[in-house]
């Protein structure tokens, strides 16, 4: 039996929406379990003064089982099997959801937090409440002591430390009904379904699938000066899917991105690709309310139970409890973190973090265990994806000086060899600090078995077609389907059919081709490429190392350069304004690409390019007598070199594109293109340099900004405008991140320019403060795009007749320009997270408004998937 289980991982990153696409494919398990009724008793009190709250409602979430407290705040509640959360509520207080376990008898102490700006009722049914204030608040004074001591309590304070780390990530499709399980289509998959675990939070509504698991064992070394962390991966394994459908490395990296390490001492904690303000960040008293709710004297040293809640429940903040040591160190001994139900966080139905710290030989505290549970779902009650990441730390040692060679090289080094046969189940059984649960042990076998079932293979095939646009057909893939039909003013209706080979045909050679026909221009177009992998890996697998040759004849809009989408995509057929200036391109290209494990890459290319104007585009030049000379074609030969460095970059490798998830590290790129005159019929000499950088900046509760800075300079004289920098315009109704959305095609050209593009996502910080509006969970987004450039006289047709004239409209008015003494600027304000997927921007163009047929403002739409 063939198996897709592996013991080695290369990091990559999955596109956000793929989480739901992949797990929608998996249908799962059988083994029923039944639980006895749970008997709860406890007390409900006001968190500000510990006074009992009478007549508060205590109810199991999703059930009709409910009770109320007596005059002394006491309650008794019997809970049916299958429920694992109770909600305590009372008028004038914020409701609290409390998790319960599967023990038959349990006691709870619950503190309710008064709502702000609540009008007291005439009939007093609750204790008097003091308005919350940071001033003279012992809880705030305590958290400030924790903040003051956090630098000496965190891992980075050790001069040297080393420890063994075990990580486990497990996920499954959750909340599957009996009716769903018993559908005829799942007849062959009953071995996968099992009863959902009552301990996982919320009400147990049905069956679940443990559908993915990954384990990693590492040795970690840290030092303070210079600040360095080295991870040596000793062993790892994961459940793996058929690679022709799924990028397993990208899937693994994506799950590790969602389930990141949690350092309570960091000011901002990144979870599900967002930053949450830590309750012990320096600014936490501004955003959190703190209450001392208990003193734990059963441990040494004594602990203070410090409860905290967000001031605004829609912000990206935690709620929970910290247990602080009373030994003068004010260290965190334990932390329980969750989020409010009203948080502006997409698709996350539940979030639960548990951190436990242990004293070392110097009586300082280090993290012993970390657990992060996440429950994802499109709806509050529907099928979801439930997962957990646990990390255990053993063998913690300090003050052991390791040689510099230990810290040299990359921060993460894989000691384990791919397909190491010694890493069998016996190895893992003896090296895991915590044994796998029975359902987790079955995941590896079940995933292998599932993929041998023909009906599941067909289902994966169809799903790959929907998600990626390609249809498997033996050793080839047909697609992408969204380009099969499109239209434009030059070609009219356009039909296209294409495909490519896969590693089933060859692991070294890959071919790709398409042919297209325009019914208006009655011309055939085509593309053919052959790629040879020099590292015996798929050319779509990181790190890429290949040699590629291609030939193409097709249409193109001058200056349009699209990312993550093809120009003949059907949805881009709809455009505003005049867009009848096209090119017929004949391009022969040879390129060599090399990527390295440190995310540096280079690409060397040689192209022979013949372009012919199409539609109403003209290439014309004035002679000495002022007469127009028309040119039917333009030939150039180009040598290009591209360098790119993206430290710590991760991505998901899809069928067409790599989909990145941003991190805090910048990405740098340098592109050089040389026009070679008299080489392969090249007609012009020029040197085009582009230098740029991309960076995401995080602002904690104020959101984040994606910033691109780019400069361009072209050396050469008498260069026609097709070889200058034709700035990227957009005449569709979709908001494009890299294009100028209110600039017309061919409107601006330059031979030197500098630009800045800022996309600022505020994550609802303002809208979360507006009553009623905050329930929509919309988020603010702002953008500004600025470009300033110039055109030297020797390349400007206004000063020389040795270059092509700029384009004019039917009224003989110029529609192509160089920049004057001011930059082009456009800005937008918008709403994102509409229906969780839609971004709508109002875009305004701020200058160059007197040029013909330019829009002054407009509405643009973009599909944007975010947590």
UniProtKB/TrEMBL annotation:
Pfam families this protein is in? CarbopepD_reg_2 (PF13715), DUF5686 (PF18939)
What Gene3D superfamilies does the record point to? Answer: Carboxypeptidase-like, regulatory domain
Q: Which InterPro entries match?
A: CarboxyPept-like_regulatory, DUF5686
- Check the UniProt entry and state the signal peptide residues, or none: none
Write down what this protein is called.
Carboxypeptidase-like regulatory domain-containing protein
